[in-house]
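Let's practice the habit of predicting before peeking. Look at the sequence and jot down your guess about where helices and strands might fall. Then scroll down.
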Amino acid sequence: MSLKKLWTALRGAANEGVEAVADTQAIRILDQEMREAKQELQACDESLTRIMAKRKLAQGKVDSLNADIETYTNHAIAASEKGDDALALECADKVGELEITLETEQSILDSFLGSEKSLKANIAKAKNNVRRMEQQIEQVKATESVQKAQVAVSTRHMGANSKVKTALSSLDRIKEKQQQRSAELEVAEELANEENGSDLDAKLKAAGIKSGAQKSGSDKLAQILAAKKAQ
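Done guessing? Here is the structure:
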């Protein structure tokens, strides 16, 4: 193998090793990223809460200014109808000042409303993304667990098959030994009978020489008839 090919092979092996480590840590990394994302979303919720509080205060100021403007407008009209032009003019000036203040406060309110709307939309989108990512992570975890279980079962099945084969071989050997032992016991019993003369006694009985031998049918019939006549 050339040095170039050797270097390529070594580099490929190194890359596979790095990828293996990365794959092993992938789920842990994703979990950590999800925790950090949730922390950021919590901070966003807190910011949204502050903006909504400020928007509420701004809305209160705008509502109050609108109410004051309406009140002093009515005062100006009432004073004018009574012929008190000076008082009517003073009320009109107050309305003008309030309208300028209202314009500023309305601008602030509109800014808060825009920020609130934009932040709500972005937070909702981010939360949806986090939920989808969590679902994918859980699916990956479940798939990983199932595949590990399948590998374990497959490995154990292969091991079990090997153990079963070994057990069956042992069982066959035991049966053979038992058969050999039974045969040896039968031979030993035959030898013992021969030593005790049992075999000879059996032969004498069969020949009718020794008592206890089985008599033939004609002999037995003659014995029965003789006993009958004797009566």
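How did you do? Residues 85-195 form the longest helix (111 residues).
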